[in-house]
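Lab notebook, bench 4. Still working through the backlog of constructs that have no structural model yet. Next entry is a single chain of 74 residues. Request: give me the C-alpha cells for it.
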Amino acid sequence: MSIKSKIKSECPLLYQLYKILTDIKDAQKIKSAENKFYSLADWQIRQLDSELYFKAQGKVLDWNHLLTYTEKMQ
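Model written out:
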C-alpha cells in the first residue's frame, strides 16, 4: 500500500487538504502561464504558433495562406 493511499484511507481530511493545496498550486501555474502568454507581442505568438504547427504537422506554417492551417485545426 502506498503512502498516498494509506493517508487517503486513514486520514481523509488530511488527504482533502492535500488535494486542495495541489489544486491551488496547479491554478497558480496556469495563471502564471497565462500571464506569460498575454505579455508576448503578436509576432512572438505567431512564432510560437508556427513552431507548434511544425512540430504537429511537419511542415512550415504559411501565414499568407492559412487555408491549410484552418483545415487542419477543424
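Notes after review: The helical segments are 3-10, 12-38, 42-57, 67-73. Residues 12-38 form the longest helix (27 residues). Flag for follow-up if needed.
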